[in-house]
């Protein structure tokens, strides 16, 4: 039988509160305190959740499982900040095809195939122009040349995967723009393990405040050579131009916001060139193509530039972080000063300084 606890308020009015309600409120309080405690125990660079892809040929991730694991660790993230932008970024056929053909497993399978093709091509070419009595000398020479060319191609592809790419990392910029509010960064990484592909979606804990402060101070220290810094940014980021289709009404509204000085309320990807936009239909379709550049505008303050650079390279950094591909001194005492990551030789702001500002 449920008993009641009698309570008296300031007006002398008595109210009854069931013990079950008290227990429920106390349980919610304990759960909230436990969640806050779990979140405070994380440090920069620690992987919170890693979800593997369902299929190698059709990469997709269980976002409901991601949400369940994140909630268990105390991260309450709205649907509009996680599932919606992730589906927009990754649940696209062209992006899935890119993830397959750019995966480590595909490169692993392509290496022997490329070697055989090169061997046959080089052998058939040299056999026409070079006459030798000992075929083993020709075969050995062809094998060495084929091994060298195959190694060079794989080396180029391997290094290209360490750089930021437009088809995946840049598409995750807008996801991380929302996730960073919850002290999380998202990235996709893969490698070959036991001759099988291992593609996963990673959620890494990251408090951006210290990196933002350090990178802002660096840009402010370069204020006396701001023109040189801006040229360096354009040279390093000029290839990062995103071409998308947007409704003409939204494009007009964005232009009016810029004219009214509302740049601080606009998304990270801002319009770079709207004069050259072309209609997607000859009959006046409602959509037009627009180019969005990731080069920070020269008129932005140092903090605004730092914030944009951190988000631009966030997904690429997570990919390198979880793959252990960040180059730098591994010993704790040899790490650069003001490293804000406990699990890698370089933190996000130091990685940007090394890749762009040096």
From TrEMBL:
Keywords: Membrane, Transmembrane, Transmembrane helix. The chain crosses the membrane at residues 104-129, 135-157. This is Transmembrane protein 268. Pfam families: DUF4481. Residues 252-262 have a biased composition (Acidic residues). Residues 276-285 have a biased composition (Low complexity). Residues 252-285 are annotated as: Disordered. It comes from Parambassis ranga (Indian glassy fish). InterPro entries: DUF4481.
